[in-house]
Amino acid sequence: MVGRMALGWTLVRAVFGLALGLGHGLPKVTGDMSRFAAGVAELGFPFPLFFAWCASLAELVGGVLVAVGLFTRPAAAMAGFTMLVALFRHRADPFGRMELALLYLTVMVAVALIGGGPWSLDSRVRRKA
């Protein structure tokens, strides 16, 4: 992956990672977690507050790690799993409501499969080792 492809992949990774982390994870972590936990409880998860924190941190930390390309594959896998649950949550909603979870899921799966690319912190760490 060189040149324009590397730049394109970096843009996709950074924009989707930051949007997920700062646009969705951060408001959950700094907001009323009990409200989000109630939604998690409706899905039938045991320990809904615990799983609400797990999902929120997967979005926040996972999204930021994907954006900078550090521990990219595991971070994308965790964020992707969270988006799979979100897609399940919105399965009966109109497509416009589930579309965002589907987009994030698709990108996170792609990132988990491809990795961070040459312009990532993972790549820099590998070169120094």
UniProtKB/TrEMBL annotation:
<feature type="transmembrane region" description="Helical">
    <location>
        <begin position="36"/>
        <end position="58"/>
    </location>
</feature>
<keyword id="KW-1133">Transmembrane helix</keyword>
<comment type="similarity">
    <text>Belongs to the DoxX family.</text>
</comment>
<feature type="transmembrane region" description="Helical">
    <location>
        <begin position="100"/>
        <end position="121"/>
    </location>
</feature>
<keyword id="KW-1003">Cell membrane</keyword>
<dbReference type="GO" id="GO:0005886">
    <property type="term" value="C:plasma membrane"/>
</dbReference>
<dbReference type="Pfam" id="PF07681">
    <property type="entry name" value="DoxX"/>
</dbReference>
<dbReference type="InterPro" id="IPR032808">
    <property type="entry name" value="DoxX"/>
</dbReference>
<protein>
    <submittedName>
        <fullName>DoxX family protein</fullName>
    </submittedName>
</protein>
<dbReference type="InterPro" id="IPR051907">
    <property type="entry name" value="DoxX-like_oxidoreductase"/>
</dbReference>
<keyword id="KW-0812">Transmembrane</keyword>
<keyword id="KW-0472">Membrane</keyword>
<feature type="transmembrane region" description="Helical">
    <location>
        <begin position="6"/>
        <end position="24"/>
    </location>
</feature>
<feature type="transmembrane region" description="Helical">
    <location>
        <begin position="64"/>
        <end position="88"/>
    </location>
</feature>
